[in-house]
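This part of the workshop introduces the protein records we will be handling. Getting from the letters to the tokens is the skill we practise here. An example says more than a description, so a record of this kind follows:
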Amino acid sequence: MGKLVIATQEKIDDLISKRAGETKFGERIQLANVQNWEESIRDSNAKYVLVGIPEDIGVRANLGVGGAHTGWEAALKAILNVQNTNELNGENVLLLGWFDFANWLSAAERMDVAKLRVIVENIDELVYPVIQKIVAAGKIPIAIGGGHNNAYALLKGSSLALGQSVNAINLDAHSDYRVQEGRHSGNGFRYAKAEGYLEKYAMVGLHQNYNSEAVLGEIKQSPDLHYSFYEDIFLREQQTYTEALIEGFEFVKGKPAGIELDLDCIENVLSSAITPCGISTLQARQYIFRSKNYNPVYLHIPEGATLLRDGRSVSSTGKLIAYLVTDFIRL
């Protein structure tokens, strides 16, 4: 079984590198009461609620390379250690905690794909009620870590909290709109759309090599779906990157929108589908910075890893996530 672990001062103190004459973000970040975290969120004056979803079961259920569970702790440490300033004040963020999936991760080592997809359904059921409570309290969840399967829980929780379907925009090499063949990291948006939680969905920068003709055909026929190709932006130069972003954001601006950034679209960032040819880290930051103007209902940064199950490792993923998160919350 999985569970939500509420962050405490004792748990985060070891992650903060304190320095005389400086104040780190983690020294000002708000924490919830372990006994009544829901009330803490409602009573807090923080605008954002940070939560970790460290799992890679959804990735493996999509036949990918595991390791997405390793991104959260590195990201948390990096976030806690940025400088606290008037424009980037930790008091504007409540660190709720993170999900503990240790038992499921252990059990998943011995499971086939069909069983992994059942576990993903269980993760959905654990995550979405937490997101629902955060959004119902008038806060904006920032979810980090895990596979892109968790977009479904974020959309479901947000939709139920608001009593209406929501929109989403996704900067990604993949549509993650594969068929409903069992839950995994490649079909969260499909399930959310089918179940009425997602209305309009914009995909920015899809890679032509990694999106099937069948899925693209469906996207082209639906007035609720919009996409742009990486190749049309950067190879054919049919539109600029800025134009593609504006087009995507304008498509979803009629309702609260989930802001999705799959780290596997950024060049050489460690993930299950790491790409040697993608957008730059600066372009990813520009996307996040622009998103603040379009009524975000949540921010989701999935798929990043510091260590993949095949042994590949990178130490900079957590710091990159910290840049993206702070771009989103900076005044």
Observations:
- The domain at 3-329 is CATH 3.40.800.10 (Arginase; Chain A).
- The chain has one domain: 3-329.
- The mean pLDDT is 97.
- The two ends are 39 Å apart (CA to CA).
